[in-house]
Write a structure and sequence with these properties.
- The protein is of the alpha/beta class and 297 residues long.
- It has one domain: TIM Barrel, CATH 3.20.20.
- 38% of the residues lie in helices and 15% in strands.
- It contains eleven helices and twelve strands.
- The strands form three sheets. Strands 2-3-6-7-8-9-10-12 form an eight-stranded mixed beta sheet, sandwiched between helices. A two-stranded antiparallel ribbon has the order 1-11.
- Helix 4 runs parallel beside helix 5 and helix 5 packs parallel to helix 6.
- The two termini are 35 Å apart.
- 44% of the residues are buried.
Length: 297
Amino acid sequence: MLRIRENNKERKPHWLKIKPQFDETYREVKDLISEMNLHTVCQEATCPNIGECFSARTATFIILGDICTRGCRFCNVKKGKPTDYDLSEPMRVAEACARLNMRFSVITSVTRDDLSDGGAAIFAETTRLIKSKIPSCGVELLIPDLMGDVDALETILDANPDALAHNLETVPRLYGKVRPKAVYQRSLDILKAASQLRSDIAVKSGLMVGFGETEDEILEVIDDAVRHGCQIMTIGQYLRPSDWHLPVTEYYSPERFQTLKERGEALGMKFIESGPLVRSSYMAHRQMAAFRRKTAQ
């Protein structure tokens, strides 16, 4: 176990140091995103894997603008009062996926509590347009909790994504500190509703570690997720984006991540991607492929 001071400038352990990949393909993807006036988690959340993912022609697109109505203390996406959403955005995302020749795309959004359906209709339209332009392209949707609106969830599922993800993020004891406007049971209920409404769509969630949770608490969350229909789980290290954000209380070693994977899968989770730099959408196509191989056995 490696503990650190509450200081964002504390030196990170060696396993969190990666060599940036800013090759010609990276620049091509970055320029295309800018040209089409799109937003990505890779950029907005300052993801450490941006070089690797852009260089592999993958990106996680953020729809419904770039301003979130919530103020989670781990997230680097802008917070505030969003403007009206752009009705042409789904078409631009689909066009970007086509120009990048994507075989698997991940779409997420800022949380839009100001919209009656939480943005469900835009998720659905984006999915349909991608599949229309690239029928062979898989689509994973990483959605907010929609304030628990099952009708909105059904709108999204009717567009036939390949995977539906909603992140639990942390253990219930820390929700008030980490994501104060979220409700743990509400998030579990969204996962359960997705699994019950569409058994043919993979249900996925994600956790971050390093907020002060215990290993037993993490395993309890995985067990809860399994019992609510979740099949795929990602576990990664929280990294503090700025001094305003919550400090990291602990860096987990790669060995501990492997232990969490093994113990979590023993609880019934079909597939767990666990590692220091793992993010919910990190190489999501590989996660889906591994999940499908495992469930086909």
